[in-house]
Amino acid sequence: MSRKTRDVAGIKLWSEVVREYFGHACQRCGRAHGRMNAHHIIRRANYVHRYNPDNGLCLCVHCHVWGKTFSAHGTPEDFLAWFAEYDPLWNSWRIRHKNDSMKDEGRLFTSWNIPYIESEITKLKAVRAAGGIKEPMRD
Ligand SMILES: [Zn+2]
């Protein structure tokens, strides 16, 4: 199985765990029907947090990408200003961790490879089996 295939499975599971945690309700506008997305707080290109369930926020498609006057991807600066008020502690975590690197000392995996993705999927399954995210990472 290719890395791409495992990544798609990992992101899908990550998205499901995040949306379940927030009860499939948009955390910005409160909408609780229609299509919901999981938004990466720290960009998904940062592989340290790509599958981290504490790095996801449930947003409706409007607040995530479609909104012309406000959306996480359409107006990222406005979104971050909103996010800082929505959860100041989580925002502090974002700032402290946004430049985390796979190459940091002490990491079990130093590159984005299939064993790393498999280990992240295992962690996501454990979080889901435990009923969601119990202690969001705020360190
Ligand atoms: Zn919304």
Describe this protein's structure.
The chain is mainly alpha-helical and 139 residues long. It has one domain (3-129). The chain contains five helices and two strands, in the order H-E-E-H-H-H-H. It has helices spanning 3-21, 61-66, 76-86, 88-97, 114-129; strands at 36-40, 56-60. The protein has a two-stranded antiparallel sheet with strand order 1-2. Helix 3 (76-86) packs across helix 4. The longest helix has 19 residues, at 3-21. The termini are far apart. 27% of the residues are buried. Zinc ion is lined by residues 26, 28-29, 31, 59-60, 62-63.
Q: Order of SSEs, N→C?
A: HEEHHHH
Total of DSSP H or I helical runs spanning 4+ residues: 5
Number of domain units: 1
Q: What is the structural class?
A: mainly alpha
Low-confidence segments, given as residue ranges, are: none
